[in-house]
Design brief:
Blueprint: H1 2-22, E1 51-57, H2 62-75, E2 79-85, H3 88-97, E3 102-105, H4 111-115, E4 118-132, E5 140-141, H5 143-150, E6 168-172, H6 177-186, E7 196-198, H7 201-209, E8 214-219, E9 228-229, E10 231-232, H8 239-243, E11 250-258, H9 265-275, H10 280-285, E12 289-290
């Protein structure tokens, strides 16, 4: 009897050992079960941009846009920025009509333009310089005197301490953002008596440079050594006086988009670049003051 009990206990013990040995050992490195989905690590590769961004509008913004294009293309060499200077109004109309990706305006947008869906993205501030020929001894004018010259109340330089010569008043065509800003700031909209009107900033500067009795206005960013920018109300037109607001004749440089219209990746990247603080030095080198630096 004792022998039988001993054998039975031995069998039970063996069976227990065999069951334990048959169980697979757990691996502490095993991952928890998933539903089969795999999580991919985010890509660190930059998005490669390409294509053409059509930009149309203000001729006064030409220097700034060209400088920004050069900087942008160093980062995105496969994007072509196609800029046409046709005037602020044409640029706003173009972007609203969908004929260009980005419009350029060197003036504030009107209530009607805003009502049509135009959106103002201000990238810079610019002074509107009043320019005379280098032979002209007059180097300072007040805002009131400038208004009187352009409306025909003052017609001879001798009235301002200059030579006895009739003043040749030059300006921009009616669609110009520079003209709109200049006349609005001085309160002389639709009152100017121009001898000649020109389609670009360069034309105004060139014709003032070639006429010793001429006066005109141009974007400060476009003024070169061929003309002299006079002080206005005792303040010289410089980047510093535009930045601190002391120069009285200044206006915004605006990239115009359309509310609710999605830009192409390349156009959006260019707009973001132009609005970023990192381009402040580029805009300054082009003669304007960054609005976001």
């Amino acid at each position: 009897m004792k022998k039988t009990l001993t054998i039975a206990l031995a069998l039970v013990l063996c069976l227990g050992l065999l069951a334990a040995c048959g169980e697979p050992a757990s691996d502490p490195t095993d991952a928890p079960a998933t539903d089969g989905a795999q999580t991919e690590a985010p890509s660190s590769e930059p998005i490669e941009l390409g294509g053409t961004v059509v930009v149309n509008g203000s001729t006064s913004m030409g220097n700034v846009i060209n400088a920004l294009t050069e900087g942008f293309n160093e980062i995105n060499p496969d994007v072509q920025i196609s800029y046409t200077g046709s005037g602020s109004s044409a640029g706003i109309e173009g972007v609203l009509a969908g004929s260009c990706d980005l419009g350029l305006s060197s003036r504030e947008l009107s209530a009607d333009e805003l009502g049509e869906g135009a959106v103002a993205n201000v990238i810079a501030k610019d002074g509107v310089a009043v320019v005379v020929n280098p032979e002209n001894p007059v180097s300072e004018l007040t805002s009131e005197q400038i208004a009187q010259i352009f409306t025909g109340e003052i017609t001879n330089w001798s009235e301002l301490g200059g030579n006895d010569a009739e003043i040749a008043v030059f300006g921009r065509e009616s669609a110009s953002g520079t003209r709109s800003a200049f006349e609005e700031i001085l309160g002389i909209e639709d009152q100017c008596a121009y001898l000649n009107e020109y389609s670009s900033t360069g034309d105004v500067i060139g014709n003032v440079a070639s006429n010793p009795n001429a006066i005109g206005y141009a974007s400060l960013s476009a003024v070169d050594e061929s003309v002299v920018a006079v002080s206005v109300d005792g303040v010289a037109p410089t980047e510093a006086t535009v930045a601190d607001g002391s120069f009285p004749i200044q206006r915004p440089f605006v990239v115009v988009t359309v509310e609710g219209t999605e830009l192409s990746p390349a156009a959006q990247a260019f707009l973001d670049y132009a609005m970023s603080a990192e381009v402040a030095d580029i805009i300054a080198a082009a003669g304007a003051v960054s609005a976001n630096g």
